[in-house]
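To whoever is on call:

I kicked off a structure prediction for a single chain this morning and the downstream step that reads the tokens threw a length-mismatch warning. I double-checked the sequence; it's 353 residues and nothing unusual in it as far as I can see. Pasting both halves so you can look.
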Amino acid sequence: MPPTIPQPIVAPHTPAAMSLVVTVNAGPAAQTAVRALCGDLAGLLRAIGFRDLEGRLSCIMAFGSDAWDRLFGAPRPKELHPFREIRGQHHAVATPGDILFHIRAMRMDLCFELATQIMSRLGAAVSTADEVHGFQYFDDRDLLGFVDGMENPVDQAAVDAALIGEEDPAFAGGSYAIVQKYLHDLRGWNAVPVEQQEKIIGRAKLSGIELDDAVKPASAHNVLTTIEEGGEELQIVRAGTPFGEVGKGEFGTYFVGYARSPHRIEQMLENMFVGKPPGNYDRLLDFSRAVTGTLFFVPTATFLEDVAPDAAAPSTASTTATEGESAAEAEPQPSAPAGSLGIGSLKKEPAAQ
């Protein structure tokens, strides 16, 4: 079997990014248009990226739970399910989204051109749910003034954190993405003394150095978002960006988190919004409000290139996990043979019987 090629999840940070979330409209024509784009995306990237070979243009195409069933059917990724809203001291909302296009480059015009071509190809097949143009803010700071993503894993550690392995062999090399748009109350935040801001974040504002445990509260953002199981830290790859519209007075952070299991990010959000223990919530949320929330599965680039435009999606098993039901509670789907993507009729050539 030829090697399976992942999408560029662990690509280095770039100064420009666009996140485009769309919903797929009803009807077979819309599904055909989406499946056709799957196979054409690599060619679009090459054509536009060739205009600036140092522009590092990349695009990740990911799918929500309902869209996966409509487009691809069974088998489905083991842990794919709709985003589960969280209600605690604050509210992590769940919002619509069938496809995520996460586009990154050194220049915004490359991102913009690729997004334009993607939407031109899709046309009436989709409706836009959300669009965010992100940018690098000085030395990789968020609009709250703190350096963002300092604990991101790199190299092999990033691969291990983000890409599925033997736990779901039919979808090895894929990943899960959770996206949330946070709007900041900058007026309220800037009224808080820097020393108190540092305790909310858990880091020094200027240097980014982590505060000593003796002075860092249990509710600090970097405490609640550190997840350990069995003595091992479970990392994720963060790829969010600042964004803002000055005229509207809207400023925030667009969070994009990639992980080999959505449980890692979900546990972080549970700690933030409900608290660990309950009530010990993330005080950053007093100034930063989540207005979107969607979970996507990121298939491999190999999967996308093998999708046939006119293939009918197989019917999904009735045992698929539903919203509010954990993946462990759902009866598992049949596994594909080792080394297979298990997409059968989606391939341009028939799968081996």
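Update from on-call: the warning came from a stale cache, not from the record. Cleared it. Sanity check on the structure: Residues 28-49 form the longest helix (22 residues).
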